[in-house]
């Protein structure tokens, strides 16, 4: 089996240097290590990506000659070692020893002495090195976000951007969604308490329970029987705003991995739900989730911009449009987003969202309701998108609104939720 630090360095290398997503490469890496090390691998990978600029700045203080080409993975191994020393409870000698040992699995035993020297140098001089980095006042290093994203957040939220960044750099809590076909919230809370699992409730998302400490889903009563699912409370509010009714024809657009589709059916089992997504591989997750929960929906692979290619039925009573977005509201769950997204992605995403909005509006019945949702905090994808849509769509009426902006913007950390946006739109008759 592979050394867990070697696996972590390989994962970080693939994300940062090759642009792979953490959700795709981490499961593959876990297959190469001992099961007992899965949580440790995840902690290291998430942590390095969460604090990447700070770790890079530290490494630059210690490395005289950059590690390039085939040696590049060993640069990331150094970051793995630094993260353990700076942020984890692992004793320094163990963190250094195990990280140095990882050179063998990465076929770089000749670099063993170099990496050992770099990490021990940091051990000896961490106070002075950390102070120099602190004194640099480099925003990307201080806040561990790319410059372009910090600029957008500062422009959009002049009084709140620091709170957003702080929330992004913290670990996300574990929220559960109770399946009321099996249990009430109160009865399931009692089951958790019997297992000595401490929880708290959400003031608005009535199916949401937050665990005081995340745990493996196998420890949750009735998980395999579909009594409960893992889903952030902010995402659960989509069904609150959609307000599905019995026997309605409902579309979940951009549905993968299927959490919202399932939530609709848990609330209204006799609704006719259609789930569409353009990614056939991710639709497998939709089918898996529905099977575990013993729920049934019509699952279709199709491009939301061109419903004429996949839908020939009646117009829908309700549409939940969970639009493709920058995912800047869920950075605390997916820290790789900070390094995979680029500034010019935002305009392209806004154009795509606009096209899907127009296409889906044509599929909504007069009098019907559409919920436009994103897991973004950027106004270009949210309030500005909806303002522009309303200006060009005469039969669209906004139902929910904050004081100055259309819709509701949830910021990361609000009631311990992810960042989300919701606009509830009604088609006038």
TrEMBL record:
Class of enzymatic activity (EC top level): transferase
Signal peptide: none
UniProt-recorded Gene Ontology molecular function terms: RNA binding; rRNA (cytosine-C5-)-methyltransferase activity
Keyword Zinc-finger assigned: no
SUPFAM superfamilies linked to this entry: NusB-like, S-adenosyl-L-methionine-dependent methyltransferases
Pfam families in the record: Methyltr_RsmB-F, NusB, RsmF-B_ferredox
UniProtKB keywords: Cytoplasm, Methyltransferase, Ribosome biogenesis, RNA-binding, rRNA processing, S-adenosyl-L-methionine, Transferase
A single BP term in Gene Ontology: regulation of DNA-templated transcription
InterPro entries the record matches: MeTrfase_RsmB-F_NOP2_cat, MeTrfase_RsmB-F_NOP2_dom, NusB-like_sf, NusB_RsmB_TIM44, RCMT, rRNA_ssu_MeTfrase_B, RsmB-like_ferredoxin, RsmB/NOL1/NOP2-like_CS
Catalytic reaction(s) noted: cytidine(967) in 16S rRNA + S-adenosyl-L-methionine = 5-methylcytidine(967) in 16S rRNA + S-adenosyl-L-homocysteine + H(+)
Ligand binding (S-adenosyl-L-methionine): 254-260, 277, 303, 322
CDD domains: AdoMet_MTases
Location(s) in or outside the cell: Cytoplasm
GO cellular component: cytosol
Residue ranges annotated for the SAM-dependent MTase RsmB/NOP-type domain, each copy included: 164-428
Gene3D superfamilies: Helix hairpin bin (1.10.287.730), NusB-like (1.10.940.10), Sun protein, domain 3 (3.30.70.1170), Vaccinia Virus protein VP39 (3.40.50.150)
Enzyme Commission no: 2.1.1.176
Active site: 375 (nucleophile)
Family: Belongs to the class I-like SAM-binding methyltransferase superfamily. RsmB/NOP family.
Record's function text: Specifically methylates the cytosine at position 967 (m5C967) of 16S rRNA.
Protein name: Ribosomal RNA small subunit methyltransferase B
Organism: Vibrio ruber (strain DSM 16370 / JCM 11486 / BCRC 17186 / CECT 7878 / LMG 23124 / VR1)
């Amino acid at each position: 089996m592979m050394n867990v630090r070697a696996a972590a360095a390989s994962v970080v290398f693939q994300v940062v240097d090759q642009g792979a997503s953490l959700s795709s490469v981490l499961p593959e890496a876990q297959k190469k290590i001992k099961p007992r090390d899965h949580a440790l691998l995840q902690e290291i990978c998430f942590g390095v990506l969460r604090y990447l600029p700070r770790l890079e700045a530290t490494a630059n203080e210690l490395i005289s000659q950059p590690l390039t080409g085939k040696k590049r993975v060993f640069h990331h191994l150094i970051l793995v070692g630094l993260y353990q020393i700076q942020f984890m409870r692992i004793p320094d000698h163990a963190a250094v020893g195990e990280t140095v040992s990882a050179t063998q699995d990465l076929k770089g035993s000749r670099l063993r002495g170099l990496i050992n020297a770099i990490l021990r140098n940091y051990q000896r001089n961490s106070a002075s090195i950390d102070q120099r980095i602190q004194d640099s006042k480099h925003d990307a290093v201080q806040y561990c976000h790319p410059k372009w994203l910090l600029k957008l957040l500062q422009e959009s939220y002049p009084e709140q951007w620091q709170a957003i960044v702080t929330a992004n750099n913290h670990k996300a809590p574990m929220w559960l969604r109770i399946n009321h076909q099996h249990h009430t919230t109160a009865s399931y809370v009692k089951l958790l308490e019997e297992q000595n699992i401490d929880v708290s409730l959400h003031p608005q998302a009535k199916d949401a329970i937050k665990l005081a400490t995340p745990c493996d889903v196998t420890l949750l009563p009735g998980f395999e029987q579909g009594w409960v699912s893992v889903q952030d409370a902010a995402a659960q509010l989509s069904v609150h705003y959609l307000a599905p009714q019995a026997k309605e024809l409902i579309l979940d657009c951009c549905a993968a991995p299927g959490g919202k589709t399932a939530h609709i059916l848990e609330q209204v089992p006799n609704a006719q739900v259609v789930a569409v997504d353009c990614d056939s591989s991710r639709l497998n997750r939709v089918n898996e989730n529905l099977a575990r929960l013993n729920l049934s929906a019509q699952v279709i692979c199709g491009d939301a911009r061109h419903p004429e290619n996949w839908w020939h039925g009646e117009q829908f009573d309700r549409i939940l449009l969970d639009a493709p977005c920058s995912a800047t509201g869920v950075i605390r769950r997916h820290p790789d987003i900070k390094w995979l997204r680029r500034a010019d992605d935002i305009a392209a995403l806004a154009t795509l969202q606009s096209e899907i909005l127009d296409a889906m509006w044509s599929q909504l019945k007069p009098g019907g309701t559409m919920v436009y949702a994103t897991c973004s905090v950027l106004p270009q994808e949210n309030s500005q998108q909806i303002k522009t849509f309303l200006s060009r769509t005469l039969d669209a009426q906004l139902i929910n609104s904050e004081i100055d902006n259309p819709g509701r913007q949830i910021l990361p950390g609000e009631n311990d939720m992810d960042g989300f946006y919701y606009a509830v739109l009604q088609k006038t008759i």
